[in-house]
Amino acid sequence: MLSKRARYAIKSLIYLYKNEGSSPVSAKSISVNENIPFKFLEKILRELRQHKIIKSERGAEGGYRFFKSPQTVRVVDIMRIIDGPIALVPCVSENFYEKCEECVDEEICILRRLFSELRDQMLPVLEETIADLSQK
Amino acid sequence: MLSKRARYAIKSLIYLYKNEGSSPVSAKSISVNENIPFKFLEKILRELRQHKIIKSERGAEGGYRFFKSPQTVRVVDIMRIIDGPIALVPCVSENFYEKCEECVDEEICILRRLFSELRDQMLPVLEETIADLSQK
DNA sequence: ATAAAACTCTACTAATTTGGTAGGAATTAA
DNA sequence: TTAATTCCTACCAAATTAGTAGAGTTTTAT
Lengths: 136, 136
Hints:
The structure is a homodimer.
Chain A: H1 4-19, H2 27-34, H3 38-50, E1 54-57, E2 63-66, H4 75-83, H5 110-126, H6 130-135
Antiparallel strand pairs in A: 1-2
Helix pairs in contact in A: 1-3, 1-4, 2-3
The first copy, chain A, binds a DNA duplex through helix 3.
């Protein structure tokens, strides 16, 4: 399952996409309209900012905007930032690879083929961008 | 990510498939050969037995056998038993459906389409059986 | 009979992750 | 200067995960 943090992050970005205009979008308005606990949201937005997905403007009338274009930010990017690997076993993860500790022989580990096939099926779906997602 | 319990469960079943013969396979031998903590494994095997995936024979020379044929036990079945839903959001789960609490309007929840598409891509891969998986 | 090898069951525990909350400092527009 | 806003650190509670402990039950071989 996705964590709530990841769900909140994706929803926030969709909201941002739909509401970004001449002025940036405040955390408060995201919180209220998307029903996300304010303080929790702040932390999520910070993480997205630190990963250069969004940028912030401080002070009154401040808020958030996209840093990268929403046409290039993919759902998979957000999931990796917030929840970590997409793959279900670490030894087939592209971005978070780790040897499976208890695997006797990784070369012939029988789970690798299945779960790398699974990852290959998942990725294209998750490569949808925030912009595309918001419009459908 | 898969939980260790689920990884252990799948590996145990593959081991069982490869070693089941005239005599059943003991938890001890699975534990030693697959490098799984013995007492932890016992609990996992119990769950698989309670869900009629395997059956047990008690006493000396006892152990485990398949209850259902390994040609019919799918990876997805084990994952659901041990880890729960396959879908990444509860509102698109077939077997563990739940309304997403914070969703303002489920009908138009923008995440549903994406994650139900994802689930549809994942399922066929995970429908591979223990028998098939063991042979490739 | 009895000892050994196995499964069965309940209960507990430790570590990690998740989902937050609290409070204040810094910044900016009006 | 004040109100609105982000920024940052620290903390906390609940849930989940990954085990461990130990006593009990069943069966086989001797």
